[in-house]
Each structure stands twice: as C-alpha cells, then as structure tokens.
Write a structure and sequence with these properties.
259 residues; alpha+beta; Glutamine Phosphoribosylpyrophosphate, subunit 1, domain 1; five-stranded antiparallel sheet; 6 helices
C-alpha cells in the first residue's frame, strides 16, 4: 500500500510520502516514493509515486534521463507542461509494458503527484493518471492524495484552507493525516519523507525524513490523541427523552421505511 499527499497553500507546497511497499502481509519492504528535480533559480519539482513499483521506477528513470539530458522537465516552461511531460513518460512506459501486463491479468497501475514551480509561473500541484492525463489542485480543493487516502482525508477537508493555512501548519496537517492513516492501516508506515517548498524560492532546501520511533513524530502522535480526547470530552452533553413506547417505536420504523 501507499500514501502520498500534496498540499498547496498561498505560501507554497507540502509534499509527503510513506516508504513502505508490500506484496502481502508477510512481504514488506522499504522503497522511496519521493523524487526531486531541481535547477536552482529556474525550476523545482517534487514527484511522488504510487502503484506498481516496477512501473513507477521505470517512469521516474525515464524522467530523470530526460532531465539529465536537458530535456523533458528541464525544459518545461510551466507546471502544466511539466505535468504533460510526466504524462508522456507514463504513456511511453505503457507502450512498452501494458500489453504484457494485461496478458497476465495485471493492470497498468501508476499514479504520480507533481508539485513545484517554474520561474515566472505560480506554484502548482498536479496528479497524473495511468493514461498520462493530469488534473490540478485548486484554491477550493488545495490538496491531492494517492493510495490509501480515505483515513487521512477528513482532517484535511476540515482544516486546510489555501488562503490562510501557513506552510508550517500545512506540514502539521500532513503529518497528522499520515498518523491517522498509519493508525488504521498497518500497510502504511515510515519512513515518511516530507518536503516544504516555499513560494518563489526555486530550490528544494527544506526536507525531513521521519523514521520509525522518531521522537518528534511520537510527540505529535501523543499530543494529537490527547487533544482529540479532550475535545470530545469538552463537547456539550447530549440530552435524551424517555424511552419511546412500543407504539411510538413502531411509528418511527414505519416513517423511516417510507423515506
């Protein structure tokens, strides 16, 4: 399983990924899902990957080869063009591998998150699908997720606001989203990689890896659980009427069935 997350704020971007891969409950491994491409002062990209590890590695290796040859991401004039370039890498790998995979009943499964900025353009966040087409985050929907996203989404829906959430607070939301996911799904786990990209910096110089047992991560986990329990306990008490009579209960059941 995988969990990757990108958050877009007015101050910049937060990109985060877990590093656990598995081919079953007894076959867990560590593999990086975060990849960076940077020309300081010109462009800075962070790419997160999910899906088949062999396919995502093929796509990333192709993107890196083009970048090293001053092509592809190294020449993209906008974040949209960068997203289309990654989509082209996905389609090129699909042409090589899709038929063989589907012949053996395996789906072509690779998703990417791209976050960053090109000089002269606004920072942006994109998701690239297995078909190679991208969608972008917006001010109204300022985050995108890959993989096991359902446990970590409710917190983000309630808390992250593009115009007012600071970059540091967004980083805390990202860690709490991972904490919720790891609590509910043991296939997601550290190391967690986290990058903060500050708007117009055009450099990737704010990186953190949270390994298993990281003291700061454990502190955040403990304090968050304590705060949740305290918040629930501080809510107003509920008020209940007398137990409904048999006749009232039957009426309620009939009304509910007719809805």
């Amino acid at each position: 399983m995988t969990y990757c997350l990108g958050i877009m704020t007015r101050e910049g971007l937060v990109m985060a990924s877990d590093s656990r891969t598995n081919a079953g409950f007894d076959d867990l491994n560590i593999a990086r899902k975060m990849h960076t491409f940077c020309q300081p002062g010109e462009r800075a990209f962070v790419v997160l990957s999910s899906g088949s590890l062999s396919l995502s590695q093929s796509v990333i290796n192709l993107a890196k080869a083009r970048f090293g040859a001053a092509e592809g991401l190294a020449r993209a004039s906008s974040m949209y063009e960068a997203a289309r370039e990654l989509g082209d890498c996905v389609r090129q790998v699909a042409e090589l591998d899709r038929a063989a995979l589907e012949r053996d009943n395996y789906s072509f499964n690779v998703h990417l998150l791209l976050g960053g900025q090109v000089r002269g353009e606004e920072p942006a966040l994109y998701m690239i699908y297995p078909q190679g087409n991208p969608i972008s985050a917006t001010e109204e929907s300022p985050f995108l997720q890959l993989g096991e996203y359902k446990y970590g989404r409710p917190l983000l829906d309630r808390g992250v606001v593009f115009s007012s959430t600071t970059l540091m607070v967004a980083a805390k939301y990202a860690l709490l989203s991972f904490d919720a996911t790891m609590r509910s799904n043991g296939a997601i786990g550290p190391p967690i990689e986290l990058v903060l990209y500050r708007r117009d910096s055009l450099i990737l110089d704010c990186y953190r890896k949270f390994t298993h047992g990281d003291a700061e991560l454990q502190t955040i986990h403990a304090r968050w659980e304590q705060s949740l329990r305290r918040a629930v306990e501080d809510l107003p008490d509920l008020h209940f009427a007398d137990a409904p009579s048999e006749e009232t209960a039957q009426t309620l059941l009939i009304q509910a069935s007719n809805v």
